[in-house]
Design goal:
Layout lengths: L1 H60 L5 H6 L3 H14 L5 H18 L7 H32 L5 H23 E2 L3 E2 L5
Antiparallel strand pairs: 1-2
Helix pairs in contact: 1-3, 1-5, 3-4, 4-5, 5-6
Length: 191
């Protein structure tokens, strides 16, 4: 009888810790999905605001709209706010996130001067690179989520770096390598 009580107690303790771990994993998984979706929404809103603002700058510089019309589409403060929100969502120790933050800064520098001639090609090149990094980050984070859910534990920073590289190269190897020199340095150094 004593052996039965001990065995029941051991299985009870193991069951408790297993259930506790499962609840923790489910909670983290739910929050990770929510975080990925919120980040996707911020990326989308950023892209929309930059596009509208860049077109307004271009239209104003061509004389196609008045200053008052331009001011209606001046999302400069909103773009700064959205950039900050995105940066707060990202891990600043991951090189791909640093590259994205750097491109956001460069885009803001391009758009900030309302009255200088905006090269639409320059805007498009920056935006194409930014959207590529958005895609890599979202797809890599989704892959991280699936791996962590499967393993039941957090993956290492080294493995995450490998995932960013795998995803980036799957989407567009040359663009990934151009934006991140060997995944260790930034192509766009912060000035």
């Amino acid at each position: 009888m004593l052996i039965g009580i001990i065995i029941s107690a051991v299985f009870g303790v193991l069951s408790y810790f297993s259930t506790k771990k499962g609840v923790f994993i489910n909670t983290v998984s739910a929050e990770r999905i929510k975080w990925i979706n919120q980040l996707r929404e911020h990326f989308s809103e950023y892209t929309k605001m930059v596009y509208i603002y860049a077109n307004a700058v271009d239209d104003y510089n061509k004389g196609e709209i008045t200053y008052e019309e331009f001011r209606k589409n001046n999302y400069n403060d909103d773009i700064v706010y959205k950039t900050t929100m995105i940066e707060l969502y990202l891990n600043p120790t991951e090189n791909i996130n640093l590259a994205l933050m750097d491109l956001h800064i460069k885009m803001l520098q391009e758009l900030r001067e309302e009255f200088r001639e905006l090269s639409y090609d320059t805007y498009y090149d920056f935006q194409e690179d930014i959207e590529f990094l958005h895609q890599v980050i979202l797809k890599a984070e989704w892959r991280r989520f699936k791996l962590e859910s499967k393993k039941g534990k957090e993956i290492s920073n080294k493995r995450m770096k490998e995932i960013f590289k795998e995803v980036g190269e799957e989407i567009n190897k040359s663009k990934y390598n151009n934006l991140l020199e060997d995944n260790d340095g930034l192509t766009y150094p912060i000035e």
